[in-house]
Amino acid sequence: MAKIVLVAAVARNGAIGVKGGLPWRLPSDLKHLRETTWGRPMVMGRKTFDSIGKPLPGRETIVVTRDATFAREGVHVVRSIDDALALGHERAKAMGVDEIMVVGGGELYRATLDIADRIVLSEVDLAPDGDAFFPELDMRRWREVSRTGPLRGEKDEASFIVRVLERA
Ligand SMILES: NC(=O)c1ccc[n+]([C@@H]2O[C@H](COP(=O)([O-])OP(=O)(O)OC[C@H]3O[C@@H](n4cnc5c(N)ncnc54)[C@H](OP(=O)(O)O)[C@@H]3O)[C@@H](O)[C@H]2O)c1
Question: Is the CB of 111 under 6 A from ligand 1?
Fold first, then answer.
């Protein structure tokens, strides 16, 4: 079975989003997201899909929504988390990879944290206003397997550390 991997960029105050978008400008983290998810199925909430507005190249996008009328070209649409994961497993197998990437937002992270095998966390050194948050992590249940950074590209608004956590 493919592993369930959460990929998120999280501020010091837990914020991940504001007004339907990201609360920062961090092109290096977007590049990291692209590399981490490349060639893999990605599961996202409908609000996160709306904020991106199109399927991202080089990956398969699975959008979760309760809206039976929702359809967009180039993406899979499912009506529940269970259906998203079932399709994720199927697509991971077809793509020859062993990971299903859950890429947000807050609602999707909350719904999948308990079944996640790994979390790839970009910890952003900012505390911005937010209206979407990453769920609190119980660090007795997770162990850090790698840590990279601090990283900060020329065009990044702040530095960030990439931590990979696996279930303890
Ligand atoms: N920093 C990061 O790494 C990161 C990553 C991703 C997103 N974000 C930010 O996070 C914010 C969006 O997060 P969010 O929590 O507001 O929304 P979200 O998780 O992206 O999407 C929520 C929507 O997903 C659907 N959904 C959720 N649970 C479902 C379930 N169990 N069954 C069926 N459908 C379900 C519903 O869609 P319908 O309403 O259509 O039914 C719901 O309104 C944005 O600001 C975005 O920019 C940040």
Answer: yes
**DSSP state at residue 125:** S
Can you give the pTM of this predicted structure? Answer: 0.98
| Domains of the chain: total | 1
Residue 109 Cα to ligand 1 midpoint, Å, equals 8
Is 8 close to ligand 1, i.e. is its CB under 6 Å away?
A: yes
Residue 159 C-alpha to ligand 1 middle, in angstroms?
A: 25
pLDDT digits (tens, 9 = 90+) for 28-62: 999 999 999 999 999 999 999 999 999 999 999 99
Q: How many A from CA of 154 to the centre of ligand 1?
A: 30
For residue 65, give its domain range.
Answer: 3-167
Q: Is the CB of 66 under 6 A from ligand 1?
A: yes
The Cα-based distances of 14 to 17, 24, 35, 80, 137 in angstroms read 9, 13, 23, 25, 10
Which CATH number is 101's domain given? 3.40.430.10
